[in-house]
């Protein structure tokens, strides 16, 4: 759950919306995040969760918060 809450906060901040508007089943492109925002979240994710080389393309492959959380859980 820590991943989901963290991602909700990051997406809301980058998309300039309130956290309650973040639907974890919406694709990241539905939040109108540009590539810079995705790269920024990727770097923050590395730092926050002590991961190495979080490729921004993960946001395409695992294109919702719920899908990305499954990937993150499998990395620990």
UniProtKB/TrEMBL annotation:
Pfam families (UniProt xref): PP-binding
Question: Which residues are in the Carrier domain?
Answer: 1-76
Naturally occurring in which organism (per UniProt): Aquirufa ecclesiirivi
Show the SUPFAM superfamilies listed in the entry: ACP-like
Q: What is this protein called?
A: Acyl carrier protein
**Top-level taxonomy:** Bacteria, Pseudomonadati, Bacteroidota, Cytophagia, Cytophagales
Recorded hits in InterPro entries, A to Z, give:
ACP-like_sf, PP-bd_ACP
